[in-house]
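Let us practice reading a record.
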Amino acid sequence: MTLASTAGRLAPLLLLACTAPKADDTGVAPFDGQFTFTDANNYSYISDLAVVAQEVQLRQEVTFDWSGLTTDLLGHPIDPVTDVDLIWVVQFPTLTEDEVVAAIVTDTLLQQDVGPYIQFDNDPADATSALLSEFVFPPATPIVPEEDFTDGSGTWLVRATTGVNENRMLGFMRPTEESTNHTFLLDSASATLDFQADLQSLTGFTLAEEHAPYVANWSALDTHAGGGDLDLTDLDQLMIARYDGRTLDDLEANFIDIELIADEMYTADVYDVADYTADLSMATNADGVAFSGFGADSLWLVALRCTTVCTNPAPPFLTVVQVGAEAGGE
């Protein structure tokens, strides 16, 4: 089996659209607990990804060294031993490096774009380097550098992931005949990712009072927050997060840390829910306690994430919910 003959895939905010009664004396229509998400509710973002390229020699053993990977793509701390589960080497036969970066940023990589790939499984989690000959074609065929590492065409992407597909760092590898380099370094400077998020142009949800239970339906969503078409089957996780004493300006300025700075967060797997509808009580916090309501005087974000097939960590959908307060950036 050769690297050139094995293909694979990287496993690498709307008005309340419900039939609500007429507004009461306060001018606010009563809310029945049904969130119907559409593109008008969704935030938007722009990503800027820069990935460093390194040359290595074809047909030779290569050492992949990630011992210097102590900060990930988002600027968050990472332990290169215990937090790196897989190292991937993925070939894109027809895409340039710039095209791969653009597809990662917009989550538009297609199966036909992705060529052969190999993996090193850091199990047990005790390694910070590996030889090319220790990588395998999934599920378990070893690579022979002199025989398999011969095709220098296309673009080669090296990925360090936590779990199956959470990108922690990226780097481009350029195999050439001329290079005498046999070490590929994947460290904290290999790639940088910058976000500019707009949470204030969306139409959020401002509720006059608490209501439970809550149900969300996202079948009407068409557009990814990054601007492209949204595949609803990619949405596999619901996230509900509370931010005390924060404004939308704060969250925009610290968007890459929205999970780290949340005062409370609930998540639920929603990849197999019927009709793209979920009761928000499905979501639980770190202690296993189910979500029971938003509460007044706090800012909440509700997001639908893509954690399995998407390469950009930004949620494809995210909206704002407040109870008894006006959403805004002041």
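A brief commentary: The longest helix spans residues 97-106.
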